[in-house]
């Protein structure tokens, strides 16, 4: 019998679930007893003050770190023991806080590299780059989706920072994720880039599931369907933006005990 989640959530509704997830470093609990439910087809934000354990959680979910306790379930299957490559093959694809693109390739070539996995030739280093021309049409579709089609032949190092992050989203989409994990997608951006990338995430999330770590509360308020707040490695609160932003415990965690207005 397939596993079914608590609170009446079935496999059609819950794509990712953690049960008592934890990570300790030499006795220090960086993440402790995290029970997370991510609903399919939603944008779920993981927020919290600096040092709350957000990126550690991401590292546990993608197995860049091994949990010291708990379970990770994806589509009802226990993936706690899976290697990072296995998790990626299952459709859990992650971006990182820093831009992870090839600066001396063109924008189109970056997307083709990500698409190459579908050909099964990612390790065929002896083949000419012309062998990847079959991927051009799909690469162009992805660039159109993220608003970079006009920059297809531009060397990536010449892109503005916000557009590099858009390119990173395109390369993430090229891996055909069932669940996209975005780690601080708007970090270090100016106001205009933040708005552009926020709109992009909202647009590409249609028909997909996104779990994101994000520090910008305006971004979270505008696109997140559900928010989980971490503090000192544990879940402090969960709910809609309205619910968590008016939660006194959350306000205190972010602003201090004397702050009375919502976030």
Rg from Cα: 19 Å
CATH architectural category of the domain at 1-84 and 213-263 = 3-Layer(aba) Sandwich
- Segments where pLDDT lies below 50 for 5+ residues? 1-12, 121-128, 257-262
CATH topology of the domain at 1-84 and 213-263: Rossmann fold
The biggest sheet amounts to: 6 strands, mixed
Count of helices? 9
Helix content: 25-40%
- CATH superfamily grouping of the domain at 1-84 and 213-263: P-loop containing nucleotide triphosphate hydrolases
Mean pLDDT: 86
> How many E-type strands?
10
Give the helices and strands, then pairings.
Layout (H helix, E strand, L loop, with lengths): L13 E12 L2 E12 L3 E5 L6 H8 L7 E6 L2 E2 L5 H7 L1 E3 L12 H9 L20 H10 L15 H14 L4 E5 L7 H14 L4 E5 L3 H7 L2 E6 L2 E6 L1 H5 L2 H8 L8
Parallel strand pairs: 3-8, 3-9, 6-7, 7-8
Antiparallel strand pairs: 1-2, 1-4, 4-5, 9-10
Helix pairs in contact: 3-4, 3-5, 4-5, 5-6
């Amino acid at each position: 019998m397939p596993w079914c989640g608590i609170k009446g959530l079935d496999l059609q509704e819950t794509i990712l679930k953690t049960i008592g997830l934890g990570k300790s470093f030499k006795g220090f609990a960086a993440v402790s007893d995290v029970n997370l439910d991510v609903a399919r087809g939603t944008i779920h934000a993981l927020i919290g003050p600096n040092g709350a354990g957000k990126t550690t959680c991401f590292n546990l979910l993608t197995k860049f770190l091994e949990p010291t306790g708990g379970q990770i379930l994806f589509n009802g299957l226990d993936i706690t023991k899976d290697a990072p490559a296995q998790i990626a093959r299952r459709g859990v694809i992650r971006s990182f806080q820093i831009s992870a693109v090839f600066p001396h390739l063109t924008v189109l070539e970056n997307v083709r590299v990500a698409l190459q996995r579908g050909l099964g030739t990612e390790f065929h280093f002896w083949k000419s780059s012309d062998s990847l021309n079959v991927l051009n049409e799909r690469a162009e579709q992805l660039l159109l989706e993220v608003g970079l089609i006009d920059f297809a032949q531009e060397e990536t190092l010449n892109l503005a920072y916000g557009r590099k992050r858009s390119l990173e989203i395109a390369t993430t989409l090229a891996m055909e994720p069932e669940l996209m994990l975005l780690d601080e997608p708007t970090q270090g951006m100016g106001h205009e880039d933040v708005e552009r990338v926020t709109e992009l995430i909202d647009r590409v999330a249609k028909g997909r599931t996104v779990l994101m770590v994000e520090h910008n509360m305006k971004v979270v308020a505008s696109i997140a369907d559900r928010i989980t707040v971490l503090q000192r490695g544990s879940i402090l609160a969960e709910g809609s933006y309205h619910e968590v932003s008016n939660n006194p415990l959350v306000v205190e965690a972010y602003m201090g005990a004397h702050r009375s207005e919502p976030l």
